[in-house]
Design brief:
The complex is a heterotetramer, with 2 copies of chain A, 1 copy of chain B and 1 copy of chain C.
Chain A (H helix, E strand, L loop, with lengths): L1 H9 L1 H16 L6 H26 L7 H19 L2 H24 L5 H20 L13 H4 L1 E2 L2 E2 H19 L1 H11 L1 H6 L4 H27 L9 H12 L11 H21 L3 H23 L4
Antiparallel strand pairs in A: 1-2
Chain B lengths: L2 E7 L5 H16 L2 E7 L4 H14 L4 E4 L8 H9 L3 E5 L19 E3 L3 H15 L6 E7 L5 H14 L5 E8 L6 H13 L5 E5 H13 L7 E5 L3 H9 L4 E3 L3 H18 L4 E3 L10 E3 L13
Parallel strand pairs in B: 1-2, 1-3, 3-4, 4-5, 5-11, 6-7, 6-8, 8-9, 9-10
Antiparallel strand pairs in B: 10-12
Chain C lengths: L6 E12 L2 E12 L3 E5 L6 H8 L7 E6 L2 E2 L5 H6 L2 E4 L11 H6 L5 E2 L2 E2 L1 H14 L15 H13 L5 E5 L10 H13 L3 E5 L3 H7 L2 E6 L2 E7 L5 H9 L21 E8 L3 E8 L4 E6 L5 H9 L5 E6 L2 E2 L4 H6 L2 E4 L3 H5 L6 H6 L3 H4 E2 L2 E2 L1 H15 L15 H14 L4 E5 L7 H16 L3 E5 L3 H7 L2 E6 L2 E7 L5 H10 L2
Parallel strand pairs in C: 3-10, 3-11, 6-9, 9-10, 15-22, 15-23, 18-21, 21-22
Antiparallel strand pairs in C: 1-2, 1-4, 4-5, 7-8, 11-12, 13-14, 13-16, 16-17, 19-20, 23-24
The chains are: A mainly alpha, B alpha/beta, C alpha/beta.
The structure holds adenosine-5'-triphosphate (2 copies) and magnesium ion (2 copies).
Protein name (chain C): ATP-binding cassette domain-containing protein
InterPro entries (chain C): AAA+_ATPase, ABC_carbohydrate_import_ATPase, ABC_transporter-like_ATP-bd, ABC_transporter-like_CS, P-loop_NTPase
Keywords (chain C): ATP-binding, Nucleotide-binding, Repeat, Sugar transport, Transport
Chain lengths: 312, 302, 498, 312
């Protein structure tokens, strides 16, 4: 009993999510089916990929708003190169490279210019969105090769390649964060930058790397998105970063830095996905959906906040 | 009910699309069709998920979609058609060609919309008549959001329609955004700083409402011809009162009705109706000015 | 007995300025291996800054530092660490959200391939704890453990890096009396093992007992360096303050025994923390609250202020107290909390705002705050408290640790409270300033104010209190007064519950 | 000289803004004219009103994302009552009241449920947006009375009433924050909540009040917006909160709480307004506009960050 309570306290958000899952599985026709589960995994693959590394950047003490712009702009760069060379590999490389450069720009702004990460990445968002318009010449871009659509859509053991890539990225990011010295340094940098510096951690480099990894992950998510849509177009769309941030924060990773976990973010991604999937399957009126969604999120995070408190 | 139809709205919050929904519901009720609405909230990823959920649920006989990402939705729509679901495209292009109302995916039962490019040509057409006898005719062009493929297509149509009128020159551009008159107010105020006078302002109805407010404040109402696209109630009021020169008709109610009628037709008979431009059958190709305003009535509030 | 002396570090003409503040100027010094080298000086004399220059936290603005005879420039603490120069900072620099193990092992994890070998890392840390006989629960979150334990974590972190030189910056400021001796033994052990140790402290007894060399700093200047053996308590005080100080403790006048108590506590309990605590304090009386660390002294104080919920009766000035902290402050209580950084100061806000935080009502009028009067009264109070500052608009963070502590005293004194609860009021304060704080406490008592004094320094309790209440494991284990009030009686009572 | 440097350091963002102003005034026809200045003031009035109180909430240590939803939903409530009663005063009262209630809900979520303010107000955003749809029945609402349009548009000494109201709110908020006990308590709560509590500050109440004031200000801005547009419509539009947050953060108010100032926010509002006004007057292509805007903001905040550092 004692142990059950302790478990519930540590894993508040997980317990809430499992509860939601069970309720939906019992009450909702079509929810707990192979196909629906596969769809949910596929739908969330892009958000998962970026959210893992967003978790890392936030644990290191930084926000990154520009992820939305990187997600929009990098697949345009990738398709530009793919169209020009006819090579899928070069296209992907160009997209990921563009992402890494964008991440490095963010990192420089934060560690060298010492600008608050929130505002720095807001400013670079404008730049990256603008880059997207320039690269695409304001039109929809489509891949030249047929292979591009297979990047995200190939089925391997019933799951899409996008799903497999997301699973691999989640595992990779978790291992990086929990099992390596770099991961330790990420926590240390966010928990107390001065203390970490005193202990010999190269905090600037740690932050730089988290920005580059995050932008690279957003680029990967964007490229997979362009494969699913077999096209990409420029926009000022912030909905991707919105989904990513919501997942990280609902998961309970502290925006103050130094605390949090990738399993929390992953759990929250599924909590939110189950919620809207449930709404869709239950045919809830969209207007009421907003109200219910707001309240359910509030309740879930209250429970998690309560469970995370020491002397609850 | 005989049939279940899913309606994937770009946004339940949109005043245009909710007008379409009203009409769809009327037709549906008369034909034993139940509609379930899904709210895309202007988030393309959310709409993709809804589309997959709709297909996976196996519950729906048909789906009507106002697509948020035209090219992006194609693969999932193909899958829906494979699964035997009847698909009707509403208001927004599904595919990447913004110059035609015709379906761009094989097997789509009907596509009811005004292609963005043709909104542009109609807008250009009204501008040509407004500029008749004025040389040079100085035009201010207000985009919704400049740079998006949608706005680019509208502008291309506008340029095409005005290409043969050398008297027309676009002297300034601005961004009105699509939400209410606020964007139009700021854009017009700023443009007035550089261009003390011009002859015509064109743009989305909502932005032109903002222009009207500013011109009234500046005492310039009547000196400048205002041309919108949207056919909203304020545009009609403006045309009747003489404050506006014209508007490209907007027919959310007709679109909704036609889409559901096409859906019912497809469900009951398997007929495909192809591309439907709701303005095509209207007087003067849906170009509303003081001359023909009495032959139209506004279908939405703006 | 002659041992060969190796000079590890040589400083020549070293200086450091922060913006306009000159923290250090023209320091020439050498640090030798196998020796314990003390830095002493008033608050703000530059002791911590000098330590930070040595371990690469700050870069000197002038002068040269040579290691093993070769000049070095450290761009970051990481580089100093690579040379075996380690510091234990005065303000704890830990990661409160992380475990003790993570804090100690930070940057020294044992690796297996690309991965941290958690088991080996744990074993390595455990080995260090065993070697120095200093045990801490490795899985506890640092934010959850008492300050004493946190201090151990800091020390263990330094010990776990094969250091050639360790700077201890006021390690005993956060330790209770009974834990000081083991620490000093540890310091000697380190020196005996051939390490150079720099030891900063305001406790002159510790300096005399455990160090080999003393450097005296004053206002950022080097006064003198010499063997500890040739110093006495008096010469050190003279060197630090620049003047001769008399008795360490002021004369304490006896309270009027006939007066009704200001504070009456009856049956105060907070489950699991303290139980059935009852006592009185009369006007003009200084009551010490003594006990071991973790005995619940601070918790009792917080309950009296209303910061934590507790059952039982608290009567103040013969009446009921309000429930809220604000009501109790308004009724005439004041408290100096034990942890100035976390519970006391707004470290980045101006000094003036820190001082008046509890008293804004009195500067408020129909036209808002009377900022002129506020500044005038704060200036006056700071003078009375002996707080040294450049400008009242400087952030509290710009002051030395001791002066930060005085801000809290100034805040409490500004309210002219009927009851002052002082929890470790002289933590980190220099000898001269300590005396002035004692004077302030004695002065308040002489003016009929009641004082509840909590201190882990037994001497301080004995030197100031009229009466001492000893708590052990959350229960009152005894009340000592007059002739019964001796160190041994106190310790006996404190250990009675364990 | 010494003094000039000190001044530049303290007022970095102000210096940058004045510089921008001078450059625009010298190079841009139509910029430094009566009418343009009046227009800018009028255009920024809504953002100014909300941004002042957002500054206060952030200084107290909290974010409030729901301001965007309050801005959208409250004028709909106001117009509903105005349409029903024909009374402008009752309409305004209802709108402001709805704002206050929404602020109180945020305050309760943060102080009672102890949910992080970022995620709490994100959740309530959904609820408030949903309320907007319910109230308006998804359609555009227009005032019944002619007087509604005069709320924001009446000219007094050449300036619009919206401008005057914004000026009054800025002054009021500044006085509240810098000259009153409440203002000090706001800083104290954000700087060190535990220390403030022990010093007798009712930190929960302080936070609660900042939420209510902010939501009330957002409602006022929304009502004035509905007067300028002579209509109001439901949406999920986050652009208002986006403008407000950008101004506060570009101004240099720390998102960690405990530091910042209203003059900073006001200055940043004008910095951003001058920038986009300058683009419009110069007829810069919107694509390049995004890129330039991003870089200029980054430079400006870098200069401000550099100037705010203590031992620069
Ligand atoms: N980061 C800083 N910025 C500005 N001034 C500083 C900084 N650090 C120290 N100072 C100033 O340098 C001087 C020396 O400070 P230091 O902390 O070295 O004193 P200290 O001798 O350790 O005092 P204490 O005994 O109180 O710890 C003081 O005047 C202090 O205000
Ligand atoms: N944050 C906390 N959470 C849970 N228990 C605590 C916490 N802080 C203190 N305690 C418990 O309260 C009791 C008293 O703690 P504390 O160490 O503050 O006593 P103290 O007598 O004030 O000692 P000191 O003043 O030397 O720190 C101990 O049993 C301790 O374990
Ligand atoms: Mg010091
Ligand atoms: Mg204590």
């Amino acid at each position: 009993m004692q142990r059950t309570i302790l478990f519930a306290k540590t894993y508040g958000i997980l317990v809430v999510t499992v509860l939601l899952f069970v309720v939906l599985a019992l009450t909702t026709e079509g929810f707990f089916t192979d196909r629906n589960m596969r769809n949910i995994l596929d739908q969330q693959s892009g958000v998962l990929i970026a959210a893992c590394f967003m978790t890392m950047a936030i644990i290191a003490g930084n926000f990154d708003i520009s992820v939305g712009a990187v997600y929009v702009a990098t697949p345009l760069v990738a398709l530009l190169v793919e169209n020009a060379t006819g090579s899928i590999a070069l296209g992907i490389l160009a997209g990921l490279g563009a992402g890494a450069v964008m991440g490095a720009i963010n990192g420089i702004a934060v560690t060298r210019l010492k600008v608050n990460s929130f505002i720095a990445t807001l400013a670079t968002s404008f730049v990256f969105f603008g880059t997207g318009y320039l690269v695409s010449d304001r039109s929809i871009m489509r891949p030249e090769t047929d292979g591009w659509r297979d990047l995200a859509r190939t089925r391997i053991f019933e799951l899409t390649s996008a799903t497999w890539i997301a699973i691999a990225v989640v595992i990779l990011a978790s291992v990086l964060l929990t099992r390596t010295r770099f991961g330790r340094n990420v926590y240390a940098t966010g928990a107390n930058r001065e203390a970490a510096r005193l202990a010999g951690v190269a905090t600037d480099r740690v932050q730089m790397i988290t920005f580059v990894l995050l932008a690279g992950a957003a680029a990967l998510a964007g490229i997979l998105g362009s494969s699913r849509a077999i096209s990409a177009q420029p926009s000022d769309d912030f909905s991707f970063i919105f989904a990513v941030l919501t997942a990280v924060i609902v998961g309970g990773t502290s925006i103050a830095g130094g605390a949090g976990a990738i399993w929390r973010t992953v759990t929250a991604v599924f909590f939110l996905a189950f919620l809207s999937n449930g709404f869709n399957l239950h045919q809830i009126d969209p207007i009421w959906q907003r109200l219910i969604e707001g309240f359910v999120i509030l309740i879930a995070v209250s429970i998690d906040a309560w469970s995370q408190r020491r002397s609850g | 009910q005989d049939y279940e139809v899913a309606y994937l709205s770009a946004s339940s919050a949109n005043t245009w699309l909710s007008r379409s929904l009203e009409e769809m519901e009327k037709v549906a009720a008369a034909n034993g069709v139940a509609i379930t609405e899904f709210d895309g909230q202007f988030d393309a990823a959310a709409q993709t998920a809804q589309l997959q959920d709709v297909i996976a649920s196996g519950r729906y006989d048909g789906l009507i979609i106002a697509a948020l990402n035209g090219p992006g939705a194609v693969p999932d729509i193909e899958m829906a058609i494979e699964e035997g679901i009847e698909v009707v495209v509403l208001n927004q292009v599904l595919g990447s060609d913004l110059t035609t109302s015709a379906p761009q995916v094989d097997g789509v039962a009907a596509s009811v919309m005004v292609a963005p490019y043709h909104s542009g040509t109609r807008l250009g057409g009204i501008t040509v008549s407004a500029c008749e006898g004025i040389d040079p005719c100085e035009v201010v062009y207000l985009y919704g959001i400049k740079g998006t493929p949608l706005d680019t297509a509208i502008r291309n149509g506008f340029d095409e329609a005005t290409a043969d009128s050398p008297n027309i020159t676009v002297v300034a551009e601005g961004e009105g955004k699509y939400l209410g008159p606020d964007g139009g107010i700021a854009a017009t105020q700023d443009i007035l700083q550089v261009n003390a006078s011009f002859d015509v302002v064109v743009g989305p109805d909502q932005a032109i409402q903002g222009t009207e407010i500013v011109l009234e404040d500046e005492g310039m109402l009547g000196d400048v011809k205002l041309i919108g696209f949207g056919g909203s109630a304020p545009a009609f009021e403006g045309i009747r009162s003489g404050a506006w020169y014209g508007t490209v008709m907007g027919a959310p109610a007709d679109e909704g009705r036609l889409a559901m009628e096409a859906m019912v037709d497809a469900l009951k008979t398997g007929n495909d109706q192809g591309g439907i431009d709701p303005l095509a059958a209207m007087p003067d190709d849906g170009k509303v000015t003081a001359d023909n305003v009495d032959q139209f009535s506004a279908q939405w509030d703006g | 007995m002659t041992t060969r002396v190796d000079t590890l570090l040589t400083l020549s003409g070293v200086g450091k300025t922060f913006g306009g503040t000159v923290a250090l100027e023209g320091i020439d010094l050498s640090i030798e291996t196998g020796k314990v080298h003390a830095f002493v000086g008033e608050n703000g004399a530059g002791k911590s800054t000098l330590g930070k220059l040595i371990v690469g936290v700050h870069a000197p603005s002038a002068g040269r530092i040579a290691l093993d005879g070769a000049e070095v420039h450290f761009a970051s603490p990481a580089q100093a660490l690579d040379h075996g120069l380690v510091g234990i900072s005065q303000e704890l620099s830990l990661m409160p959200q992380r475990t003790v193990l993570d804090n100690i092992a930070l940057g020294r994890e044992v690796m297996r391939g690309p991965f941290v070998d958690a088991r080996a890392t744990r074993a390595a840390v455990q080995a260090v704890m065993d070697r120095y006989d200093m045990q801490v629960d490795l899985d506890a979150r640092v934010g959850d453990i008492p300050v004493v334990e946190q201090q151990k974590v800091e020390i263990l972190r330094a010990l776990s890096r094969d250091a050639r030189l360790i700077v201890f910056d006021e390690p005993t400021a956060r330790l209770p009396s009974d834990q000081v001796a083991p620490l000093l033994a540890l310091v000697r052990q380190l020196a005996g093992a051939g390490k150079a140790v720099i030891y900063v402290s305001h406790f002159l007894e510790e300096i005399l007992e455990a160090t080999d060399t003393v450097t005296i700093l004053r206002n950022g200047r080097h006064i003198r360096t010499g063997p500890t053996a040739s110093e006495t308590h008096e010469t050190l005080v003279e060197g630090v303050t620049g003047s001769v100080l008399g008795e360490q403790y002021p004369e304490i006048t006896a309270p009027d025994a006939a007066q009704a108590p200001v504070l009456s506590v009856r049956g105060l309990s907070r489950p699991g923390v303290f139980e059935n605590v009852s006592f009185d304090i009369r006007p003009g009386e200084i009551v010490g609250l003594a006990g071991l660390v973790g005995s619940g002294r601070s918790e009792i104080a917080r309950a009296i202020l209303g910061a934590d919920p507790a059952t039982g009766e608290i009567r103040f000035n013969g009446g009921d107290t309000g429930r809220s902290i604000a009501a109790r402050l308004a009724a005439g209580m004041a408290m100096i909390p034990e942890n100035r950084r976390e519970q006391g100061l707004m470290i980045d806000r101006p000094i003036v705002e820190n001082v008046t935080l509890s008293h804004l009502r009195r500067f408020s009028g129909a036209l808002g705050l009377d900022r002129r009067r506020e500044r005038a009264e704060v200036t006056q109070q700071c003078t009375a408290t002996g707080l040294k500052y450049n400008s009242l608009d400087d952030p509290a963070a710009a002051l030395s640790g001791g002066n930060q502590q005085k801000i809290l005293f100034a805040r409490a004194a500004l309210g002219d409270p009927a009851l002052l609860i002082a929890d470790e009021p002289t933590r980190g304060v220099d000898v001269g300033a300590k005396r002035s704080i004692y004077d302030l406490i004695a002065g308040l008592a002489a003016r009929g104010k009641a004082i509840l004094l909590i201190s882990s320094e037994l001497e301080e309790i004995l030197g100031l209190s009229h009466r001492v209440i000893v708590v052990s494991r959350g229960r009152v284990a005894g009340e000592l007064e007059g002739a019964d009030l001796t160190e041994s009686a106190l310790m006996t009572a404190a250990f009675s519950g364990t």
